[in-house]
Design a protein that fits this description.
By secondary structure, this protein is an alpha+beta fold. It is about 35% helix and about 25% strand. The longest helix has 28 residues, at about 15-40.
Length: about 220
């Protein structure tokens, strides 16, 4: 069983600029990875790391080593959904001979963090940016504090909202062995899919529950 804690950030204008710059830089890294996925048909996280990490560090020295790893995770995660979800029109099991499309990640993409790039202490969190750490006051309920102590933290993701930015912490209970990706069948709207020679197209927006996410269904 998974459980998420969502924390809106009180972002000042200068902080917003720093987070926007981080999003844009991570999008550039993801877009540098996308042709490698298309050409090698490899989206396994470890495989992608071996294929691309060294060249990405040389090409994007300002991003930092651990954030490069997190960008690789982001691409791997998205590709697993796009190429492996049974309802995806790009499912490779159904179309094994079909060339993979090229993904394009928009600058509105979420940014994934880990224990190296974000830390939580009582009343405060510290997160990586391109020009140093940024700190925010953190108001947690007693239940949330207990969850941080007892449950396994699986993902930390920064997303842009209409009101600013939000951090989401996804936990798995200690006894959980769940490792699969969310099976909702939704592809995030920050990803464009290009099948040559057609221009990039955004997958169709659903009409109901998830207005911000295109759906395979």
């Amino acid at each position: 069983m998974k459980f998420s804690v969502h924390i809106p950030l009180d972002v000042q204008p200068a902080q917003r600029e720093r987070l926007t710059a981080l999003q844009q830089a991570v999008a550039e890294v993801c877009n540098a990875l996308a042709p490698i996925v298309r050409d090698t048909r490899c989206w396994n996280r470890v495989g992608l790391h071996h294929l691309a990490y060294r060249s990405l560090r040389e090409r994007f020295p300002q991003v930092g080593s651990q954030m490069i790893c997190n960008a690789i995770y982001s691409v791997s995660r998205t590709c697993r959904l796009l190429f492996q979800h049974p309802q995806s029109p790009f499912n490779v099991a159904r179309h094994p001979e079909k060339p993979l499309p090229l993904l394009q990640f928009q600058s509105s993409l979420p940014v994934y963090f880990d224990r190296h790039t974000l830390s939580v202490k009582v009343g405060q969190l510290s997160m990586y940016t391109l020009d140093g750490r940024m700190k925010f006051q953190l108001n947690l309920t007693d239940a949330d504090v207990q969850r941080f102590k007892e449950d396994k933290l699986r993902e930390i993701v920064l997303t842009q909202t209409q009101d600013g930015y939000r951090l989401s912490f996804t936990f798995a209970a200690p006894q959980s062995t769940e490792t699969s990706l969310d099976e909702s069948g939704d592809l995030p709207e920050y990803v464009l899919v290009s099948e040559d020679p057609l221009p990039p197209t955004r997958l169709r927006q659903p009409s109901s529950q998830h207005p911000s996410k295109p759906s395979f269904r």
